[in-house]
């Protein structure tokens, strides 16, 4: 079995689903001959033709909007937006149209599309390439928001996203694209959406994260184990629809929760999880919920991005603060 | 209230067809590919003075781009977008602008920015991922590099509205790529500029490619200049590898704009001889033969041939110029490298006019984290 990195896993999932389902189409800027600026769509145009792998004009609003139209006709468009900063031009189409089509037409028209894009900092990219916009989409009723944290998850979750009958915003952490490889069987097995994954079990504290930040959460768990602190680590994976049950179950066991995300803190998705814990898990908590996040600043250019991103030491610190409560 | 044309048409017999207008797009060019004049040159090109300055700017821009690519390869700066083969668009445009005018550049306009007075240290800082690079020591009113394609076009239109409102004789000059003409931002901006006859010039740097997407997949229109027609705006093409033609076209458009004549859309026809950026490998999608053929049209040799033909340039001056460029670039590089990196407080210090209290704790935290990291 081949060991693949995250971007190759995306490519595998796309190829698998395009071969299985003739309605799946890939569209976006540079997805054809170039194979996408990150090579996620490499070789697809050669294999599936110009009509199913479509280089669009440079217009993100069009890409998202045309995907809505295609999806309503029974196609399964998987649209690529090259970088986070350019996805905002799609917001009108996603918020006002993709997310609402089923609801507005009482189920007469539906929108089974996937909008793939990158997210997150840490690769020294130019301006407007390193934001974490997940909370913007998670706020919108009617869509799903999925962020994989490994090649295995990327493969299984993307298959699930394409097969899902509703619109899915699928954000791929750019920092993970080539960070590590895993064995990923190309077996067409989808992973469940709307479910968290318990990545590592522990009894003292629950670390909740997603996407690239999961690396720091896992590294922190490793460091803490040397001090005798057993951290449970949860990969949220699907932010919307949030599987709060898995998180509550874990916190019922550990009594402590530290949420780690790279996006700015204010109105970030960590706030949603913390609020849910306050509503439904307060009596299980020994300590206030801690958030380790990006600062409430514009994602800085490359020279300061390491200062912005929450590193392992900050996660360990937060756990220590939580452990002070007995 | 007066009856609108639409209402009048509603009342009258409906015609089977309406001939609205017939359109032609002119294309301006002064020098042929061998550097021979095809027609009398504009006034500014009458003597060697200005033309040699423009030539120097072209050579400097190309040398700076080459250095920037080399710096990217050694990890000193990040991704960089060079303008190899397209320098005449930037240089011609910037030479046509007055100091009081405002430039709205894309990421590929180092040439224009250098002519405008942005320093090389600033450009290097920006591409090295340092926000201080956008704090131009001059020109203070120019916009920073615009990365989201075409989003600078509405800014230019808005600035032009402000000039008009205040009765200022200034012009907004917006430079975009061919791919940018597919964005709503572009259409929306030229439409608004047309409605209000705004003093703005849009210069399309048509280099044939938007990363891997060739022009024929970008539009079915015969020219990009004709997109102006639907907005009720004048549109024309210009040989983008002929710096005299670019300058002349932009200068005339700017003069028209200054005297209340409204916006112009100029499509500069050129070619991207290099990769899209240092993160790109154009051999994946582009035939090297196509690139080779295009080298015959590149702008620097063309102007050099013209200048040499008139006895205004020679080998000696050429060598001296290359030496001066290398020296200037090295000086800028030294200054750039001597600049201490920004501290973490830089993330906060220009976010709001004064830092809200709630953010002061985060700022302190960032400084503390930085200290811990060592
Ligand atoms: C809105 C937006 N979408 C996508 C990108 C990514 N991207 C950067 S440059 C580019 C191609 C731009 O082509 P063009 O407008 O022709 O300008 P050129 O780079 O050729 O000068 C793309 C797709 C971007 N910067 N902005």
Termini distance of chain B? 73 Å
N to C succession of SSEs of chain B: HEHHEHHHEHEEEHHEHEHHHH
What is the average per-residue confidence, as pLDDT of chain B, rounded to a whole number? Answer: 96
Please state the structural category of chain A. alpha/beta
Low-pLDDT stretches of chain A? none
Which pair of chains has the greatest number of interface residues, and how are they split between the two chains?
A-B, 38 and 46 residues
Strand content of chain A: 15-25%
Shape of chain B: globular
Structure commentary:
The complex is a heterodimer of chains A (326) and B (374). With 326 residues, chain A is α/β, with parallel strands linked by helices. In chain A, helix 3 runs parallel beside helix 4. Chain A is globular and about 60 Å long. The mean pLDDT of chain A is 98. Chain B is of the alpha/beta class. Chain B has a six-stranded parallel β-sheet with strand order 1-7-8-4-3-2, with helices on both faces. Chain B is globular and about 80 Å long. The mean pLDDT of chain B is 96. Chains A and B meet through helix 11 of A and helix 14 of B.
Fill in the keyword field for this structure.
heterodimer; A: 326 residues; alpha/beta; seven-stranded mixed sheet; five-stranded mixed sheet; 14 strands; globular; B: 374 residues; six-stranded parallel sheet; two-stranded antiparallel ribbon; 14 helices; 8 strands; binds thiamine diphosphate
């Amino acid at each position: 079995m081949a060991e693949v990195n995250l971007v190759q896993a995306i490519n595998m999932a796309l190829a698998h689903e395009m071969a299985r389902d003739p309605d799946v189409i890939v569209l976006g800027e540079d997805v054809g001959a170039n194979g996408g600026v990150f090579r996620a769509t490499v070789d697809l145009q050669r294999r599936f033709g110009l009509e199913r792998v479509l280089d669009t004009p440079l217009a993100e609003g069009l890409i998202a909007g045309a995907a809505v139209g295609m999806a309503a006709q029974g196609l399964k468009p998987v649209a690529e937006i090259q970088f986070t900063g350019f996805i905002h031009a799609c917001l009108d189409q996603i918020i006002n149209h993709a997310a609402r089509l089923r609801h507005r037409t009482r189920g007469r028209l539906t929108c089974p599309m996937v909008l793939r894009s990158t997210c997150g900092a840490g690769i020294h990219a130019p301006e407007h390439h390193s934001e974490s916009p997940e909370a913007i989409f998670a706020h919108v009723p009617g869509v799903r928001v999925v962020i994989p944290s490994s090649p295995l998850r990327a493969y299984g979750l993307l298959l699930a996203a394409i097969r899902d009958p509703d619109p899915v915003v699928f954000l791929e952490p750019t920092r993970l694209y080539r960070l590590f490889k895993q064995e990923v069987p190309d077996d067409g097995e989808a992973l469940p959406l709307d479910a968290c994954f318990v990545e590592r079990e522990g009894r003292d504290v629950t670390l909740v994260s997603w996407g690239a930040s999961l690396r720091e959460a896992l590294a922190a768990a490793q460091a803490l184990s040397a001090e005798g602190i057993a951290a449970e680590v949860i990969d949220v994976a699907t932010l919307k629809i949030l599987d709060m049950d898995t998180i509550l179950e874990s916190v019922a066991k550990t009594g402590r929760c530290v949420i780690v995300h790279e996006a700015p803190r204010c109105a970030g998705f960590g706030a949603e999880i913390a609020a849910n814990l306050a509503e439904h898990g307060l009596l299980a908590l020994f300590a206030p919920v801690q958030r380790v996040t990006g600062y409430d600043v514009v994602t800085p250019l490359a020279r300061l991005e390491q200062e912005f991103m929450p590193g392992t030491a900050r996660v360990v610190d937060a756990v220590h603060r939580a452990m002070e409560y007995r | 209230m007066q009856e609108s044309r639409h209402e009048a048409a509603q009342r009258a017999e409906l015609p089977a067809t309406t001939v609205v207008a017939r359109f032609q797009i002119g294309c301006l060019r002064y020098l042929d590919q061998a550097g021979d004049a095809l027609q009398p040159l504009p006034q500014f090109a009458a003597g060697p003075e200005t033309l040699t300055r423009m030539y120097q700017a072209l050579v400097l821009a190309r040398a700076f781009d080459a250095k920037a690519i080399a710096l990217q390869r050694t990890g000193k700066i990040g991704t960089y977008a060079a303008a190899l083969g397209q320098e005449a668009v930037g240089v011609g445009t910037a030479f046509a602008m007055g100091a009081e005018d405002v430039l709205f550049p894309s990421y590929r306009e180092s040439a224009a920015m250098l002519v405008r007075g942005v320093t090389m240290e600033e450009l290097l800082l920006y591409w090295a991922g340092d926000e201080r690079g956008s704090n131009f020591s001059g020109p203070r009113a120019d916009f920073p590099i615009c990365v989201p394609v075409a989003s600078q076009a509405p800014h230019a239109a808005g600035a032009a509205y402000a000039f008009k409102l205040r009765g200022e004789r200034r012009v907004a000059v917006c430079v975009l790529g061919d791919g940018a003409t597919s964005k709503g931002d572009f259409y929306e901006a030229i439409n608004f500029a047309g409605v209000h006859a705004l003093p703005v010039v849009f210069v399309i740097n048509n280099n044939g490619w938007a990363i891997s997407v060739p022009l024929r997949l970008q539009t079915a229109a015969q020219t990009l200049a004709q997109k102006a027609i639907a907005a009720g705006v004048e549109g024309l093409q210009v040989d983008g590898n002929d710096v005299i033609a670019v300058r002349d076209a932009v200068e005339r458009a700017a003069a028209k704009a200054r005297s209340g004549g409204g916006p112009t859309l100029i499509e500069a026809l050129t070619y991207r001889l290099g990769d899209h950026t240092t993160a790109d490998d154009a051999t994946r999608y582009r035939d090297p033969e196509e690139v080779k053929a295009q080298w015959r049209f590149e702008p620097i040799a063309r102007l050099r041939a013209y200048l040499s033909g008139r006895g205004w340039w020679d080998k000696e001056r050429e060598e001296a110029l290359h030496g001066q460029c290398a020296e200037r670039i090295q000086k800028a590089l030294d200054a750039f490298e001597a600049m201490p990196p920004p501290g973490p407080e830089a993330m906060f210090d220009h976010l709001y006019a004064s830092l809200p209290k709630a953010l002061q704790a985060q700022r302190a935290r960032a400084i503390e984290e930085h200290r811990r990291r060592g």
